[in-house]
Amino acid sequence: MSHEIKFVSAAEAAREAAIVKLTGAAIQPAKVRVDKTGGTGMEIEWRDGHKSSWSFAWLRLACPCATCNEEREAEGREPGEAKPKPKAVLPMFEAPARPREVTPVGKYALRFTWNDGHEAGLYSWDYLRNVCDEQRKPQ
Q1: What keywords does the record list, in alphabetical order (predicted)?
Q2: Are 102 and 114 in contact (CB under 8 A)?
């Protein structure tokens, strides 16, 4: 049996401690609405009565795949926080994040295929509820 040991900085440990980990009915969706046509984002009504909503831009920036997560951690960014833009003479146009496809993964997650071609992240119900802004402890 192998065990994974993860070393974290004090700042990262503080960020992780600031998130309330929810379980049970709190991480079970009652209703999921993905507005792919309108392009507004996703809303979830949870079985415990809480409602969460995210824009597609936020969801893309919060991709939970290993590559995106490692990049965010290395840069000290939170899920959903954009990378700082380099100063340029003329800003480059970047198409807004939109899913081309949204696929359920079992009874525990959604997979988005984004318009930039990225599709590695599995957005589990647990992850989505626990990154909901209203669940963060006041700092």
Answers
A1: Iron, Metal-binding
A2: no
The CA-based dihedral angle spanning residues 92, 53, 30, 68, taken in that order and rounded to the nearest 10 degrees: 40
Q: 46: helix, coil or strand?
A: strand
Strand, coil or helix: what is 56? helix
Burial grade of 67 (CB within 10 A; 0-12, 13-18, 19 or more) = exposed
Question: Across-strand partners of 104?
Answer: 110
Most confident of 13-17, 18-22, 47-51: 47-51
Does position 91 have pLDDT exceeding 80, yes or no?
no
All structural domains of the chain, each given as residue ranges with its CATH number in brackets, are: 16-81+98-135 (3.30.2020.30)
- List the one residue out of 110, 134, 95, 120 whose CA is nearest residue 32: 110
